[in-house]
Amino acid sequence: MKDILYGTAYYYEYLPVDRLDKDIEMMKAANINVVRIGESTWSTYEPQDGVFDFSPLDKVLDAMHTAGIHVIVGTPTYAIPTWLAKTYPEVMVQVDGQRKPYGARQIFDITNPTFLRYAERIIRKMMQHVAHHPAVIGFQVDNETKHYGTSSDNVQKGFVQFLKREFKGDLKQLNQEFGLDYWSNRINAWEDFPSMDGTINGSLQTAFETYRQKLVTNYLAWQVSLVDDYRLANQFVTHNFDFEWRGYSYGIQPEVNHFDASAALTYAGGDIYHPSRKHLTGTELSFAGDELRTLKHDNYLVMETQAQAFKQQVPYPGQLRQLAYSHLASGANMVEYWHWHSIHNSAETYWKGILSHDFQPNPIYDEVKQTGTELKRLSSHLVNLKIKANVAFLASNRSFTALNAFPFSDNHNYNDLFRSLYDQFYRLNIRTDITDETHIRLQDYQLIVVPALYSVSDAFLDKLDDYVKRGGHVIYTFKSGFTNEHVKVRMDQQPGRLTRSTGVHYNLFVDPDGTQLVGQSRSLRQIADTSLQDWMELLIPDTAEILATYDDPNWSNYAAITKNHYGQGSVIYLGCYPSAAVISQLVADYTQELGLRRFTAAFPVIIKQGTNDLGKTVTYYFNYSSETQLVSNPVRGTDLLSNQEVVNKLVLNPWGVAIVESV
Amino acid sequence: MKDILYGTAYYYEYLPVDRLDKDIEMMKAANINVVRIGESTWSTYEPQDGVFDFSPLDKVLDAMHTAGIHVIVGTPTYAIPTWLAKTYPEVMVQVDGQRKPYGARQIFDITNPTFLRYAERIIRKMMQHVAHHPAVIGFQVDNETKHYGTSSDNVQKGFVQFLKREFKGDLKQLNQEFGLDYWSNRINAWEDFPSMDGTINGSLQTAFETYRQKLVTNYLAWQVSLVDDYRLANQFVTHNFDFEWRGYSYGIQPEVNHFDASAALTYAGGDIYHPSRKHLTGTELSFAGDELRTLKHDNYLVMETQAQAFKQQVPYPGQLRQLAYSHLASGANMVEYWHWHSIHNSAETYWKGILSHDFQPNPIYDEVKQTGTELKRLSSHLVNLKIKANVAFLASNRSFTALNAFPFSDNHNYNDLFRSLYDQFYRLNIRTDITDETHIRLQDYQLIVVPALYSVSDAFLDKLDDYVKRGGHVIYTFKSGFTNEHVKVRMDQQPGRLTRSTGVHYNLFVDPDGTQLVGQSRSLRQIADTSLQDWMELLIPDTAEILATYDDPNWSNYAAITKNHYGQGSVIYLGCYPSAAVISQLVADYTQELGLRRFTAAFPVIIKQGTNDLGKTVTYYFNYSSETQLVSNPVRGTDLLSNQEVVNKLVLNPWGVAIVESV
Amino acid sequence: MKDILYGTAYYYEYLPVDRLDKDIEMMKAANINVVRIGESTWSTYEPQDGVFDFSPLDKVLDAMHTAGIHVIVGTPTYAIPTWLAKTYPEVMVQVDGQRKPYGARQIFDITNPTFLRYAERIIRKMMQHVAHHPAVIGFQVDNETKHYGTSSDNVQKGFVQFLKREFKGDLKQLNQEFGLDYWSNRINAWEDFPSMDGTINGSLQTAFETYRQKLVTNYLAWQVSLVDDYRLANQFVTHNFDFEWRGYSYGIQPEVNHFDASAALTYAGGDIYHPSRKHLTGTELSFAGDELRTLKHDNYLVMETQAQAFKQQVPYPGQLRQLAYSHLASGANMVEYWHWHSIHNSAETYWKGILSHDFQPNPIYDEVKQTGTELKRLSSHLVNLKIKANVAFLASNRSFTALNAFPFSDNHNYNDLFRSLYDQFYRLNIRTDITDETHIRLQDYQLIVVPALYSVSDAFLDKLDDYVKRGGHVIYTFKSGFTNEHVKVRMDQQPGRLTRSTGVHYNLFVDPDGTQLVGQSRSLRQIADTSLQDWMELLIPDTAEILATYDDPNWSNYAAITKNHYGQGSVIYLGCYPSAAVISQLVADYTQELGLRRFTAAFPVIIKQGTNDLGKTVTYYFNYSSETQLVSNPVRGTDLLSNQEVVNKLVLNPWGVAIVESV
Question: How many angstroms separate the CA atoms of B274 and B283, rounded?
Answer without folding.
Answer: 8
